[in-house]
Every structure is written in C-alpha cells, then in structure tokens.
Amino acid sequence: MGVAIVTGASSGFGAMTAAALVAAGHTVYAGMRAIDSRNAQAAKDFEATSDRAHAVELDVASQPSVDEAVAKVVSEQKTIDVVVHNAGHMTVGPAEAFTVDQVASIYDTNVLSTHRVNRAVLPHLRAQKSGLLIWVGSSSARGGTPPYLGPYFAAKAAEDALAVSIAAEVSRFGIDSVIVVPGSFTTGTNHYAHAGHPDDAEVAAAYKDLYGDDMENLLARQAQESPADADPSEVAREIVRVVALPKGERPFRLYIDPAQDGAEEVFRIGDRIRREFYRTVGFEDLLKPA
Fold first, then answer.
1. Which one is catalytic: 152, 192, 207, 255?
2. Superfamily holding 3-287
C-alpha cells in the first residue's frame, strides 16, 4: 500500500478519492485549505475514518503552503507514492463578462496549482525513481463544450496539455502518469453549486438581454444528457483501481463519462497521433515509465 496526497480533498471528487484510497489500504493526506476553521469538520470527519487518514493544510494557490504540506508528508512517511491533482474551480457565465484578473485566477486554481504541487513533489519522486501522478481533468477539454463555461474549459484544456508534456518528461525517472477524464456529473458534487460568476455585471446584463434564459436552459439540458444513475463516486473507484495496477500497465487516460459527450473519441485520436509522433522521432521510450 502506498502514500498518497490528494489536493482539493474537502469535498467532491477529492473527498471521495481520499476516502476510497484509505478504504483500499493506502495512507492518505487529504489536502485542504483552512483545516482549523472553514474545513475543520471535513478534516475531523476524514481523520476519524482511519489512522491512515490525515488532513493536511494545503492551499494550492500558495507555493509555501504546498511546500510545507509536501515536507510534512515526507517527514512523516519517508516517501510519496501517489499525487492526485484534483483541486479546481468551475465558472459559469459569458466569457467576456469575466475580468482578466478573474480569468487569471481561474487558470491559477486549475492549472498553476498543479505546477506548484509538482515543483514540490517531483524532486522526491525523481530521487526514489518511482511515483504516480494522477491528473483529474475534464471531458470539457475536448468534448461537446457548451458556451457559458469558457474560462473553466480553457483552463482544463491547459491543464491537460501540461499533463501530457510532463508525462513524457518524467517517464525516464520511473514516474507514471494517468489523466482521468470525468464527464459532466451535474449532481453529487459541488462543482455547479460553488461555481464562480463574472464580476462585470454590465457585460453580463448585455448577454442576458439578448440570450435570455439560454444559459440556464442549456445547463438544464446538459444535465438531462447524464443518466439518472450517474454516480460521481465512480471516479474515485476508478482512481483506486489504476493506483493498484503495476507501473507501466496503467492507461494513459481513464474515461468516466456517463453522458458520452464525444471527448473520448477526440482524445483517442490525439493520443494516437502523439504515440505515432514519438515513434517517428525516436522517443518511443517516453511513452511508458522506465
């Protein structure tokens, strides 16, 4: 059994994944902000499940916080085996109505956060010549992407591009990578309930005047495309399954998309072209961890 860090683990996919990994026998550090205040109950509830369940203060927007959390894990466990990049934040609204600072913040939460964690954890994984990076992405990076979610979709696409490059670059250090692609789970998580909205009310109103209730209707129709039995905890179960697979036998991508919005079809084409390109230029070894 391994030692795992899960970011954004106070709720949603992160909380489900942390709990599922503990249940499978792993030692898990659930990264959360404000574990002594806002998320105190979530931290307490998680730690009550097992002596292998640890809540750790981890603000993915702060490099010092990330560094301190990783140092704590290494100090207590002497190793890190699995890193689950889960922290993220959804937005809803016309893209133009989000200020530049807002869009930068969205990229910070969904993309730069993973780089902060990698900067802290990869030196340890490289030194031990092993480890697994799991990136919780989104079908929105390639699937049937509706409007009004643009800044979030763009950020998730950027996260995916970063994950693809890093997977190859760390492979010779024996580090494995899996990109998890959840579909649109409109119930069972807080993604939509906690979504950010644009600050520019004047621009948002201009879109509202012309498009009326289209945004609300579109999101409702998107929800209808998801089967009634769609279970977001399936994402956590699939992560546990791939963690248990031997190094080098894990899938590059893992799809959990009950609505089948077309992302898997597009991703498979892109990943095939990636494999063929690496073989053409003589770097086929980078497709699997050493």
1. 152
2. NAD(P)-binding Rossmann-like Domain (3.40.50.720)
